């Protein structure tokens, strides 16, 4: 109890009753694959235009991640982490300029289309001298013949350079060389520029530039050979982890969906393993392209029997944003967007199926009812065309052979409930393990599950039919209590989708009456 040593009136704040459980986000996705440019550490983007700023545009017919991210946002996605994957031999471009070392934020030769200029800042002191320096960055999405261009001529013309205009311009003015200043150049530029990071070029502190100097980043090296180690991204230093290893860090714990577009089978298995170990994530898996004979599809045998993944077939055709031509792309990006759309409009307990695939203009192969009768029991979720109803996702099964976990929404509902309870009950650790704590924990979880039941996530006409929470002597032995183990048993009845809708129609005859 509190210590009172002097007479007086004391006001205390105490906690009584249950603590609220906050539901975790379920619609944040993570995409792994090759991009045109961008940092190697996962970065959050909230729109395709923001993706283009940091990671570039569609750049290769064999790199499907830009198409998948675009389909994700077109289909209702809101938040996505982009984990750029590159080969082991890729090198970042760089250049030394006016005593400063500029390094590209990512690897590859795409940064050779970045021009930097350092010049005196625009703000002057009482003596008319600049108080800092100015860093300007220009980026062209395509190689321009005027790189490096005449900046002075562009300024004289009102900012328009001769020739093709840059696609992105960054301007950092009045940067300071004083580390104690809030405008210190490393504080202002690093982490805020989409293209460069800056530091002093030598051991001596940098000085304010006396004039203007321009240069183009150079010496970048591409390496598009992506192997399994590239996706795993393991490193002893947590700051050097990439790919799946980076996504395992706690800072990315809000990721709930993981997808590697058109990835090789060993990469897909690594993604599924990552989700299984994390326990709070779900993998979306693409079929291979050109799978004309759907009867050979059996992902539970060829990939993994897992409750933490769903498999989608076939590929879809979209309109290429660069040319408008038909482009065949994997369906996973659009499916991730449909997951997010369903979660945000109804709830994670709703099957992410019977939804139109926005942006799809055709499918690679037609899937008939007879074909799906073969695929559905194998855990293959078909994407089908229905006359008058468009192209829709027509399946919501996991890759699990266990009947209890065969539906995607059931597994994702349990992920949501388990993660929400896990993160919101951390306050219980080191509390006295006594009946007062047991009652409080039971109330906390009961209130949370009651809310989910009322919203339609749990099955049952009565609360007792939907869930039960037991904690106390019925769940713990004396040994458990002495060893500090608080055990809570939670029973949940999830809602399952009406996958097979049956209408029984019979012929009713009129009976004779006297």
From TrEMBL:
- Report the residue ranges that make up the Tail sheath protein subtilisin-like domain in this protein: 255-399
Quote the Pfam families the UniProt record gives. Answer: Phage_sheath_1 (PF04984), Phage_sheath_1C (PF17482)
- Domain of life here? Bacteria
- Tell me where in this chain the Tail sheath protein C-terminal domain is found: 400-507
Region annotation Disordered: where it falls in the sequence: 152-174
Q: Which family does it belong to?
A: Belongs to the myoviridae tail sheath protein family.
The record, for PANTHER family, names:
PHAGE TAIL SHEATH PROTEIN, PTHR35861
Q: What is the official name of this protein in its record?
A: Phage tail sheath family protein
Which organism is this entry from? Nocardioides cavernae
């Amino acid at each position: 109890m509190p210590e009172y040593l002097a007479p007086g009136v004391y006001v205390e704040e105490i906690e009584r009753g249950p603590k609220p459980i906050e539901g975790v986000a379920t619609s944040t996705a993570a995409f792994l694959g090759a991009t045109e440019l961008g940092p190697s550490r996962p970065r959050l983007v909230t729109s395709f235009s923001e993706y283009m700023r940091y990671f570039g545009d569609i750049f290769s017919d064999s790199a499907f991640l830009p198409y998948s991210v675009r389909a994700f946002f077109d289909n209702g996605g809101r938040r996505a982490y982009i984990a750029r994957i590159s080969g082991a031999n890729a090198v970042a471009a760089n250049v030394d300029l006016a005593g400063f070392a500029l390094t590209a934020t990512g690897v590859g030769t795409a940064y050779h289309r970045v021009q930097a200029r350092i010049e005196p800042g625009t703000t002057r002191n009482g003596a008319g001298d600049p108080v800092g320096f100015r860093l300007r960055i220009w980026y062209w999405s395509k190689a321009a013949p005027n790189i490096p261009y005449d900046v002075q001529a562009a300024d004289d013309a009102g900012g328009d350079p001769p020739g093709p205009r840059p696609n992105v311009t960054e301007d950092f003015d009045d940067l300071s060389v004083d580390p104690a200043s809030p405008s210190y150049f490393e504080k202002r530029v690093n982490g805020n520029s989409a293209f460069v990071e800056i530091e002093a070029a030598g051991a001596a502190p940098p000085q304010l530039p006396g004039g203007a100097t321009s240069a183009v980043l150079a010496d970048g090296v591409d390496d598009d050979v992506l192997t399994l180690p590239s996706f795993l991204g393991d490193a002893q230093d947590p700051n050097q982890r990439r790919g799946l290893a980076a996504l395992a860090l706690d800072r990315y714990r809000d990721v709930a969906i993981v997808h590697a577009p058109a990835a090789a089978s060993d990469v897909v298995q690594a993604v599924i393993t990552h989700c299984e170990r994390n326990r709070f994530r779900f993998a979306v898996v693409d079929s291979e392209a050109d799978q004309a004979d759907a009867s050979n599809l059996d992902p539970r045998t060829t990939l993994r029997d897992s409750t933490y993944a769903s498999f989608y077939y076939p590929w879809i055709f979209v309109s290429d944003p660069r040319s408008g031509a038909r482009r065949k792309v994997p369906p996973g990006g659009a499916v991730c967007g449909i997951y997010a759309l369903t979660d945000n409009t109804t709830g994670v307990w709703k099957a992410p199926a019977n939804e139109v695939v926005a942006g799809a203009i055709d499918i690679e192969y037609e899937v008939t009812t007879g074909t799906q009768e073969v695929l559905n029991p194998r855990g293959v979720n078909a994407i089908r065309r229905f006359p008058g109803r468009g192209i829709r996702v027509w399946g919501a099964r996991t890759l699990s052979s266990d009947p209890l976990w065969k539906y995607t929404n059931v597994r994702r509902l349990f992920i949501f409930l388990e993660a929400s309870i896990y993160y919101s009950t951390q306050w219980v650790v080191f509390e006295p393990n006594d009946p007062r704590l047991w009652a409080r924990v039971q109330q906390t979880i009961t209130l949370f599950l009651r809310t989910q039941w009322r919203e339609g996530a749990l099955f049952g006409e009565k609360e007792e039919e939907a869930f039960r929470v037991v904690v106390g002597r019925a769940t713990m032995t004396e040994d458990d209590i002495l060893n500090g183990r608080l055990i809570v048993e939670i029973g949940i009845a999830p809602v399952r989708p009406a996958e097979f809708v049956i209408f029984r129609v019979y012929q009713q005859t009129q009976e004779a009456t006297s």
